[in-house]
């Protein structure tokens, strides 16, 4: 997501961000359920002639595949009939009026099939045979002229996947690349030729490579650097050159040239001074077009024509993060997804200097006053610079605000700029929300991640606390009205804060939190071999005398504040027992607290009902213990 540009200093409190509509904003509180209404449109893509958009959509309250006709003054939407017993996996265009869809039939033996749909007649035609659904199936190339696609899929009686070629006119299916031992990922060039396969065995990785379709795959001549930690390869058609992401000397992920023939990195082509790269785009001719950095929604375009188009789009949709999703064959029209941290976004057709609304993701929120998120930086007590995001309640002076600090899960993950229903719900009720990317967070380079090793409940927690102190020192947050709320590792941080004698927080909220680190590691052990398990345990424990010394449940007697505990009963990442035991320990000690278990829910809540219920409980809990 985009690193938000500001109106002045890093912490800019008076920026006005224009929304997609000019209607007056509704300042009444938003009901929690509205934040979790199913999206009215998603997975949208533009037809080659730029006159239609195909998307998953809600039509008369039902989720369907729909086509938006953009040839008139306003978009006209109509559903595309699909068999009721099958579920849409994905869809794409094969021509101006022809769709390709993948349909999934669930049951004891799930199966899938490719189907083309003629929009003029509604006729559906199956391509190829029905295939069993295998884990790891992936479409890795669709020819620009709609003639064929390449599907990575498991091959009967083989332990690794091969690549099938499906002729999109005749439906003929052939095995284009047979499975190779240890190869789990295959890479095609822009002509649809599989050029490389990435093999992994334990912690070792290597490439198999061929220059063209007539050659056999072989292991490249080993260069000085080999793979050098590279991944996400893109070969350039007709040459041994290509691109890859790999770590730079500064410890961040950057973009390099890659020599496939010699199997080694070339020169560094692009490095962001602050963040890891997460992806890049190339043209059909192999030109490098743009890069995507962690935490930023917009693509940084290196190609002048793409950069100019981005500038034009941004000029008609100002103050928002605008991402070109797809364009017409003649490049005169583009489908743009436009969002802000206070708005879940909308799709627009851009052409002739104008942006026409296709549909909003959440129409019920279109005219609501969302809160904007801004990047912030502060120094931890040991001098380490911590980045994060601050969301301020709209319509309130930025002074003495009640604060919710919301550490992310992982912990080796990160928060990014963008729309977050939890954050928006809290800001709508008058709270400032700080999301710190404490040490160990990803996206800031290897060194920053490694600084989180051995820092559960210590350096990571101090970084969170220091963000609170920094906002209080700024006068922005009222230090007497601060609560901590998080999920997964963030839930652990909330439990840890609740059992810390420090008076910094008034209350805590934990969703799917970890209360017993040793028990969590024992649960995770099945996913590691013995060597990796010891390394992971050491990474968490560090110099602590034991895992109990890092566990909130081991110091539950010190709990000194109200806490809300929630967990899904079907969580297979952090088992619900982690919250149940903490709840039971508090109950035995007669400590008042709130506890809720969500039946059949996993590590994150699915569906509007339980999500709305949880946020409503959060709102009532905060109103009782830290009113805004």
Automatic annotation (TrEMBL):
One of its GO terms (biological process) is proteolysis. Residues 422-624 form the Peptidase S9 prolyl oligopeptidase catalytic domain. Coiled coil: none annotated. Residues 1-23 form the signal peptide. GO terms for molecular function: serine-type endopeptidase activity. InterPro entries: AB_hydrolase_fold, Peptidase_S9_cat. Keywords: Hydrolase, Signal. This is Peptidase S9 prolyl oligopeptidase catalytic domain-containing protein. It comes from Sphingomonas psychrotolerans.
